[in-house]
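User: Hey, quick favor. My workstation is busy. Could you predict this chain's structure for me?
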Amino acid sequence: MEAKLNSHDLAILRRLADTKMRYAMEPVNLERRQAWYNLDGGASWRPMVLAEFGGVNDDKRPLSLNVLECQDEWARGFEWGLRAEIWQFETLKDDHVIEPYMNTNWVVQTTDFGVERIEHRPDGIGMGACSWEPALKNLDDDFLKLKQRSFAVDRDASLAKKERLEAVFAGILPVRLRGSYWWTLGMTIKAIDLIGLENLMLYMYDNPEGLHRLMSFLCDDHLAYARWLEAEGLLNLNNENDYTGSGSIGYTRDLPQKDLSPGGRVRMKDQWVLLESQETVGVGPELFEEFIFPYQNRIAEQFGKCYYGCCEPVNNRWHILKRISNLSRVSVSPWAKEEFMADACGTSIVYSRKPNPTQISTVHCDEAAILDDLRRTVRTAAKCRLEIIMKDVHTLNNEPQRLARWVELARQATAGD
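Assistant: No problem, here it is.
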């Protein structure tokens, strides 16, 4: 067991946890939760609004690290999470929901594929453009270097983490072992790590059999990981305030499946899954259908509900993607054809709109243009179940108040003002 926290840090965490619990019971928070269920279920929905701030890298940020008061690094991590939720509720006022729990995840380790890409970045720069040397220089010659990953769980360490949190938040917040193990199972990001983006496209012509072999390998590996987690009892439901898809929240009453007994082992078919293929934005629909979709669909079929897409416009491959039988939400990126996607989604699929973040990132923040863009989305998706998510925001031009102001404008637009 880790050393006990000093009284100073313990008092801070417990005070913040008490605030979190109090806000979780507020009527506005309860309404937001029910509104998410309504949006997913298609009953008397209202447009939902979310804004992300974790990627902002300005000197002046919406929530500065300077607010942290704890001394212990472990405590500071949880302090940041609690303060972030409180800031969202008090200042940002989007449709983020505060749940009356503290979550922690199982300690799970995975090996790599036995090969490693070499990445080149400018010194001191963690984000932005980079180049890399693919792990497989020649797909045919190097393919046998690939190894299926192996997986392990440290149950003692996992339970120790939970026990430590329970000691800190005793009498205030229940603690649950509940989390996630991936962001996407789309696979193309892994493929370009292994062979590079240019080769991913060139092999479609130059070595189609080799590319199919690689995609099949990745598909088998991703499914093997999910099946291992399922067999070990490590999968968790992601049907509430869980980051699901590209910025969305997982509230649904469709999951878990009706045949899951209370307290039973969660299965893939009881979960949401995100699939996307941003890296193939320059690939035509026929090639996407041949080399990417069959493997993504194999994965989608194992899960309960599927969110598809991120930054890529999916309208030119919609005739393919609509064959995903459990497709429930789709990303309508800044580069998508909104009218087409509104007709495609109708009322059966949630229209997950992502406005262009440059609207709030440039030197001049044109609120009239932002409001006009939001109103256009609301008109276009008037018959759709609509969520509007401002994401991938990396700068607010050192004016952190812009994000909360965007939420206000989105509220104004969705209210018809």
